[in-house]
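Project outcomes to date are best conveyed with an example. Our students and postdoctoral researchers have been running inverse folding experiments weekly, and each run begins with a structure described purely in tokens. The record below, which covers 112 residues, was selected by the lab manager from last quarter's runs and is presented without edits.
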């Protein structure tokens, strides 16, 4: 069966197929082939900026291409902190031993 999915400009949808991460859908109209309950769609508003879902570590560690395309990944070691700028303005400081995923899209995220 085909399932129609509409994704707004400020949304992204994670596709979980048979309890496994499949992909991230970007804005537009998408058609997904599915059999009954084998697919889950997790909708996120990218204006919330930070993605902290259960798939964050998996995406960064195992699907680096998707991580690079969809997120700005800020990761600090035990002896580092990161200063994050959103649209060129100081937004936050990330402490040592952390990983934060910022959605790419409505706001430009940079860090040092």
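After processing, the design step wrote out the following sequence:
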């Amino acid at each position: 069966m085909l399932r129609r999915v509409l994704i707004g400009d400020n949304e992204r949808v994670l596709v979980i197929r048979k309890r496994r991460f499949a992909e991230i859908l970007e804005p537009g109209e998408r058609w997904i082939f599915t059999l009954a309950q084998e697919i889950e769609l997790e909708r996120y508003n990218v204006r919330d900026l930070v993605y902290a879902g259960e798939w964050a570590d998996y995406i960064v560690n195992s699907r680096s291409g998707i991580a690079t395309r969809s997120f700005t990944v800020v990761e600090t070691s035990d002896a580092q902190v990161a200063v994050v700028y959103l649209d060129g303005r100081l937004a936050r400081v990330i402490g040592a031993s952390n990983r934060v995923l910022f959605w790419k899209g409505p706001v430009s995220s940079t860090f040092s």
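The helical segments are 56-62, 64-70. Residues 9 and 27 are 5 Å apart (CA to CA). The training component of this project remains on track.
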